[in-house]
């Protein structure tokens, strides 16, 4: 496996990874799938593909990714059309979406970038996540980005440990989520 720059040839595969690593009903429920793809994937690969990296297997199939918005102010403006689709499809999860946006805004001065990382289960635990993270962090540093953050479910203790091993620290934990940040 290797990490490569995201390009449009991986679009469908990256979106499939996003759905398969999301809620169990995301791959087969159009409403949930539209919510997940528009909140956690499409903006990044469509608007900031230069800040996205793909984990590919030996056959050049996407099996994971790390995607990033490098500046919250830019993201906030360009995310609006995606947010409209999310609003129409998120249902009860809309509270979570609004809370995530508020958290991103609150911490954006010190941590202007934020990321999402997903890897299919059968490809985790082999150093692939750390390779994706190292690639993105090096990329952001080269661009002069001063900090990056993410939000993870508080109950996802293995992910929290992973992020800590990669230099992130807990900024706050509340309402089932843990906000983590790394100054670059």
Question: How would you portray this structure in words?
Answer:
The structure is a single chain. With 184 residues, the protein is of the alpha+beta class. It has one domain: Gcn5-related N-acetyltransferase (GNAT) (Aminopeptidase). The protein has helices spanning 11-20, 30-40, 42-47, 72-78, 80-89, 94-107, 128-142, 157-165; strands spanning 2-5, 53-56, 62-69, 113-119, 147-153, 169-174, 177-183. The protein has a seven-stranded mixed β-sheet with strand order 1-2-3-4-5-7-6, sandwiched between helices. The longest helix is centred in the last third of the chain and has 15 residues, at 128-142. The protein starts with a strand and ends with a strand.
